[in-house]
């Protein structure tokens, strides 16, 4: 990480006109955790727990999972760590899971669908999370939600694990915060209903853009059709952010498109106030936020969200340059 950013890590991430933006970081290994201190990120907004599931030749044991989660929480030293339950399937296949013969695995048996259908996998993970976060706050987030009812199903499983721990006199977390990822157009469209069932939401922009554009996030041939600076996509996000903000449920954005400062600025412009980014981009993003006039950015976008262009990137980049 660049030293000049490290010297700015305690500066407030507030725009020139006083809009506060909370900056968290993405992680997936204990090795990532020291970046919290180095970058000054406010916490881990996305801890991808499936990494541990994908590197082994079998499901990690409860003890192995618990050790990692406890280590992550210890290293976070009181900052929140949002554990995203194993998002297996789609682009993340585990050798020991039978995914069947799916022609479209990205739209197949993955994320929370697998968790609800195969509780034998999620329940040990919940057990490990509950135990690792004993006497602390557990933040747990479920990937690839499409229907509000999936939250009820997953809560039911979590409640059973809580009961199980109680019956065994195990120490439980002091508080449990449940979140849903908004990564499909179906959940974005119903984000206000989902928001009422959870404590927080996080937009997984990598997947959300993939399904919005019906363009594979990893296919080079359709890369130019997968552009978060598309005015339709930005207006879709703005609509989602506004719907959710009326419910009072906090919403973050954890898609990696924020690695691009122009896109990150546009996301502030459509109303996102909390971000989780790869560690290397925390410092650059803080500096960017501090240079922005958030109101001017959002006014500019508002005036261009119905533009016929495929992408607002060049025009918006010019606007940012002109406005210093
Ligand atoms: C996303 O889809 O934007 C996301 C953060 O999750 P992942 O990239 O792990 O699918
Ligand atoms: Mg995703």
UniProtKB/TrEMBL annotation:
The keyword Magnesium is assigned to this record: yes
GO biological process: phosphoenolpyruvate-dependent sugar phosphotransferase system
GO molecular function: kinase activity; metal ion binding; phosphoenolpyruvate-protein phosphotransferase activity
Domain of life of the organism encoding this protein: Bacteria
Keyword terms, alphabetized: Cytoplasm, Kinase, Magnesium, Metal-binding, Phosphotransferase system, Pyruvate, Sugar transport, Transferase, Transport
Keyword Transcription regulation included in the entry's annotation: no
Gene Ontology, cellular component aspect: cytoplasm
Cellular location(s): Cytoplasm
Family: Belongs to the PEP-utilizing enzyme family.
Protein name: phosphoenolpyruvate--protein phosphotransferase
Protein species of origin: Hyphococcus luteus
Originating gene: ptsP
């Amino acid at each position: 990480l660049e030293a000049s950013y490290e010297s700015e890590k305690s500066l407030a991430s507030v725009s020139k006109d006083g809009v506060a933006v909370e900056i968290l970081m993405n992680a997936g290994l204990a090795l990532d955790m020291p970046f919290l201190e180095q970058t000054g990120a406010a916490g881990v907004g996305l801890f991808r727990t499936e990494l541990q599931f994908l590197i082994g030749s079998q499901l990690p044991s409860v003890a192995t999972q618990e050790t990692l989660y406890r280590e992550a929480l210890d290293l976070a030293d009181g900052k929140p760590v949002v554990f995203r339950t194993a998002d297996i399937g789609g682009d993340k296949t585990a050798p020991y899971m039978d995914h069947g013969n799916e022609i479209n695995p990205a739209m197949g048996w993955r994320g929370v669908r697998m968790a609800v259908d195969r509780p034998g996998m999620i329940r040990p993970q919940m057990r490990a999370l509950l135990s690792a976060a004993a006497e602390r706050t557990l933040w747990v987030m479920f990937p690839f939600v499409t229907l509000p009812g999936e939250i009820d199903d997953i809560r039911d499983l979590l409640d059973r694990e809580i009961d199980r721990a109680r019956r065994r006199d195990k120490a439980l977390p002091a508080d449990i915060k449940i979140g849903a990822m908004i990564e499909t157009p179906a959940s974005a469209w119903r984000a206000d209903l989902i928001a009422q069932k959870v404590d927080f939401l996080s937009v997984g922009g990598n997947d959300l853009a993939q399904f919005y554009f019906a363009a594979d996030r990893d296919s080079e041939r359709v890369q130019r059709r997968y552009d978060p600076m598309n005015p339709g996509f930005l207006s879709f996000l703005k609509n989602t952010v506004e719907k959710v903000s009326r419910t009072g449920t906090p919403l973050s954005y954890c898609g990696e498109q924020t690695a691009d400062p122009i896109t990150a600025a546009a996301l502030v412009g459509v109303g996102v106030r909390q971000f989780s980014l790869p560690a290397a981009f925390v410092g650059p993003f803080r500096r960017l936020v501090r240079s922005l006039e958030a109101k001017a950015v959002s006014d500019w976008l508002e005036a261009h969200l119905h533009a016929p262009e495929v992408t607002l990137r060049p025009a918006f980049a010019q606007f940012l340059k002109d406005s210093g």
